[in-house]
């Protein structure tokens, strides 16, 4: 048996309905918490971590460190940035490969139908396999935050929309200097925030300003991923959210924590001014196997999914889209940080309304195993609403071959450096 086949056999079944299948077939069996599971197989654990770390190092060395001298000269900077773009593409394909090999699962896509007709955006090959999704090319992506791997699965979704090299993620500042990964994400121009507006305003103003200027100068895709909650929903964050809701006299969430709107409003105002076609992609994400009332981080982590092979049977994403020009961003967008108090309140109310909708969706998901089953107006499964089943795997073998081939420059550089350190020139 091939190694990848054995690894997939050790994983949880990647269940989920295909086109036209009954929603009730979706697997809803609860899993044991990570703390209650037996220790993962050591060989598998070492294989995943060894492969993932070595591939990251080779890509980082070959396409981020090696071309870095080009950055210092204005006439050659474009070579450096093309190399960084290639690295981001390869990292996205690495995420696809580790899901396919170490933690097989699938995305179950649903929508409201009216604002995003899935039948119009899905392209299949002759065998019925989803090979492309048509999503807005210039967007801010909003998502609730259930587990640490949310960003990875959303990046997987963008792979099928061919937007995987356009993603920029807003992350916690504590991730900025993680060995190898932190510097690589900095070169990807990801944005690191401390979750304090006083401290973050200058950082956000500088980096979003660069994005806006670049968007104005070119027609390149842009996908800015934001988790407005700023933290995972957990046993620690839920009481804090409730305390704030009670103090402020607003409705609390049951399955999430209250979102923050200040940074999001700034990003939308800054980008909408320069990108008339800017859209907002609103994703509600839910994971099979988590009982209602429990927290995702107790069931799924990077190591439990890929190192131990306990991947979610399916990752459900309910998607809505909005035109940024139709959102309550205020009247004068000349200065992104000059919204009036009244405009800020109106936008904050809009964001909380979206999160209340998400909370209702998650309640339905935990009760029914689907975001749309039992929803008024959805009498039967259609491709307009979904569910659309998308196995997380490379669209072609060519993508995998390019990923593996891209490790060669880094391997050559490391081998040459090692030889020099041992033997000299």
From TrEMBL:
<keyword id="KW-0812">Transmembrane</keyword>
<feature type="domain" description="Phospholipid/glycerol acyltransferase">
    <location>
        <begin position="139"/>
        <end position="265"/>
    </location>
</feature>
<dbReference type="GO" id="GO:0036149">
    <property type="term" value="P:phosphatidylinositol acyl-chain remodeling"/>
</dbReference>
<keyword id="KW-1133">Transmembrane helix</keyword>
<dbReference type="InterPro" id="IPR002123">
    <property type="entry name" value="Plipid/glycerol_acylTrfase"/>
</dbReference>
<protein>
    <recommendedName>
        <fullName>Phospholipid/glycerol acyltransferase domain-containing protein</fullName>
    </recommendedName>
</protein>
<dbReference type="GO" id="GO:0016746">
    <property type="term" value="F:acyltransferase activity"/>
</dbReference>
<dbReference type="Pfam" id="PF01553">
    <property type="entry name" value="Acyltransferase"/>
</dbReference>
<feature type="region of interest" description="Disordered">
    <location>
        <begin position="1"/>
        <end position="27"/>
    </location>
</feature>
<feature type="transmembrane region" description="Helical">
    <location>
        <begin position="45"/>
        <end position="67"/>
    </location>
</feature>
<keyword id="KW-0472">Membrane</keyword>
<dbReference type="GO" id="GO:0005783">
    <property type="term" value="C:endoplasmic reticulum"/>
</dbReference>
